[in-house]
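User: Hi! I'm a student and our assignment asks us to look at how structure tokens line up with a sequence. Could you show me two examples?

Assistant: Happy to help. In each example below, the sequence comes first and the structure tokens follow. Example one:
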Amino acid sequence: MKSEREQSSQNPLLKQLQNGQISRRSFIQMMTAAGLGAAGLNVLSALPALAQDATATAEASTRPLTPTIYQWMIDLHPGIADVNTAFGDVNQQIAPVAGFDTSRFVAEAKAGMSTWDLYLGATPFVDMAALVKTGAIEPWDDYISKDVLDDILPAVREESTFDGKLYHWPFLIDVIVQAYNASITTAAGLPDTAPADWDEYLANSQTVLDKNAARYGCTFDAHGWRSLVPITHSVSTDVYYTLDGDPNPGMLFDFTNPAVVTALQIMKKMLDLSGANALQPGATDGGVNQTPDEVAFGAQQVAYYIKYQNAPLRFASIWSILRRCALARCRSRRAARAARSSGTPARYCSSTARTSRRLPTT
């Protein structure tokens, strides 16, 4: 919740913005000057281009601030409603982006109008290019001072940039990890350490089934960027190619690359050790969230799991002993051999590492 000082400073600015007395650029700049930049920018994460005719502009200036967000945000952060109330006149809506389909935004942009003022939860590499090319969103560069832009981690800024402009304001960063339920692995007689490579990962998953320690040995998210790509990257990152004439080199994923084929073979073996519904869509946001892997890990039906780190941590939060959720990086057999020969230990931390001990170095 915002402090009284924040609310008293921010609400007048919001009212001026809604009444057309100040521009969106001035709104953000004054929020930053007042020390409220982070609060404002976390909400104003992407601004659809508004129509330029006077009627549409007048309507936009008098309607409530209208953000559109994903259902998973509401599910994870029920306090968003309280933030909206403190912010002022906000008409929050669930994004019409089932299955990451942004055609509604594109259609409205082509018609020179927008039902929403901002879009939160966008995935840069999924939808940014199409939204930019149709004029559905505009860059942040004209709204944010250069020192703030330069403060963004270079890799994150690059991911959020298109044609030299920052179109996505990052507020959530995930890292793909392997996770495991230590209660299940212990019951299966396995060591309380992360598998050193994919061969050990699969062998341990089979042991879990052989020992009847859990319903499933391992699981994964069926969406390619949450499974195929990171597993491929654990083998090799040299898996991209460029079409002749493409101004953005190295942007296309080569499904015929040997490293990709290896990753697909690993996933095929994982599927044999996971639930029959592992490839089915999720229950929210058009099938992309509340996925079967999340449900299985939360219900402690599976031992090993690969996904971005917040998934196992979130779904392990309902366990009676949270620290039984362990995380480690994903490594190929070649990387594991190199680490062993150099004496480098596997990165490992429990979900309570932040409070009980220092995080391992990276």
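Example two works the same way, sequence first and then tokens:
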Amino acid sequence: MQWLLLGVLGIMWTAFLVPIGRKRSDARSVEDFERRMELLAHAEVHGTSGRWIVTPRKGVRFLGPRERQQARVRARRPLTDRAAVTEALAQVAELAARLLTDESLRGESVPDVAATLELLAVPGSVLEGPALVELGVALAAVRAVDALLARLAADAPRTAALRAPLPPRTIDQRVRESLGPEGEVLDSASRELARARRAVRETRERLVARLEAILGGVDPADRASESAVTVRNGRYVIPVRATARARVGGIVHDVSATRSTVFVEPPEVIEIGNDLRAREAEEQREVLRVLRGLTDLARPHQGTIAGAVLDVFDEEPLPTGSPLWDAPNVIVMPHITCDVPGYAERVLDRWFDNFERFLAGKRLKNIVDRELGY
């Protein structure tokens, strides 16, 4: 699961590369940052990076094996304004304190909707039912977190400032009314769809009843061993012995493995079968119209809901092929937490020190013993 609330702590990790209290000039801080970014880019070229880095304004971010990711890293610049850094750290401290003291605070699990949001941004695209259901679940989680942040406005104003405008509730409501839990389009989605499905059911019942009557009139010697109305290639048929094909007539849609049985559509029901196909096509057109309507309802708000800070995943580490790595407005964080002062800075210092040692062929520090597991 991916957790919205705990991930908020990573939004403001803007000061770890330029910590307050260091007696160095802003120019020196920027110089240090640029050197480290070059090291990270070099790590990507050699395929040796642990891939987790801390970047200003974006929190902990994954570096994929792509040149554009390296360009993003090189373009980062640390905050050098003391007031901005102080405010950012105060926001993190405020939320961290609330998480330690307020047991009512909890994260909301959300499905991975990165690919859905990416498709939603394509003009004319239509989301499938399951994708729309997941989007509805994500919106419900966002609303729960928004309500929680609103409740904190008096006691934790910096945390409450993380609230953002939400899409209208009409989207959630329409998705619930139109789709089942697995994404199937419900009859209640539209009157036209309910009417189309009723016509399909009535036509199918009429066709099956006619076929059963025809099969009942076939000489027992001409029937297949397991004779019942069935479907082949989307058409309703009856099974008869191959030797009786000419007597029954109609269109052969399939033959058994032994070739002793043929599945035929008798001439008497061909028009009813055509009518059923036409009504099924009408049903599918109405299903598509419902899905298009729901997609178009959400599309104008794609930019509003296309942002998240994600910390925990169903599969960890997050696979390199996940669309989350390149999703816009998504911050991916490692599944870690610590409130020891200076922890993140020391971790980063250790990582950069070890990577420079690696490049120089020196022994690394803090090597994990695979047998001990730490």
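Here is something you could point out in your write-up. Residues 1-26, 43-66 have pLDDT under 50 and may be disordered.
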